[in-house]
Amino acid sequence: MSIVELRQYTLHSGARETLIELFEREFVTGQQAVGITVGGRFRDLDDPDRFVWLRAFPDMAHRRRALEAFYTGPVWREHRDTANATMIDSGDVLLLRGPGFTPEPGTSEVLATVCHPTDAADFDAYAARHLGPGHALHRTEHAENDFPRLPVRTGEDVRIWFGPAEPAPWPTQRLRLEPVKPWPRASPGVRPDHGREPGSAS
Known about the structure:
Blueprint: E1 2-11, H1 16-32, E2 37-44, E3 50-57, H2 60-71, H3 74-85, E4 87-98, E5 110-115, H4 120-130, E6 138-140, E7 159-162, E8 172-179
Helix pairs in contact: 1-3
């Protein structure tokens, strides 16, 4: 099990494709270079101004070191202003423990469920009946966020899984997500074309 962040960004109208293009071109390899595992990246199918993604770390100590390296490093310094200009809010972040999640190639839609169970034992019984390894079950990591430059949501205990399942009898949020296709590494001066025109930041 890894330390996983589920990050949901609210963006300026029309800015999502701008951020996705930048993210795929610069931030995936930039984070991987400092030891961050970048998981699934998604468009929220019910909100054109939401971008959802996951990243993972072996443990909290690795997380702190990797985030320090990335956010003080050359890739973020060069592109942070462009990235930040697309965002209204980047603070909707859940710190989790779980296996991480990347959809299978060719997947067109992923259902993610964020559940707030009222009883841990009852949830474990529900999970034993209805969730399997393919659901990539995650739960809140309650360790203190030791990289406070990037806040995370606190004061809640959630379970998150991916894929359809029997509805849980607790408050839930369901996200319909379209996986972002990884961009190929293009030759210098050649821009990859994935059939979508990027928007412009407000």
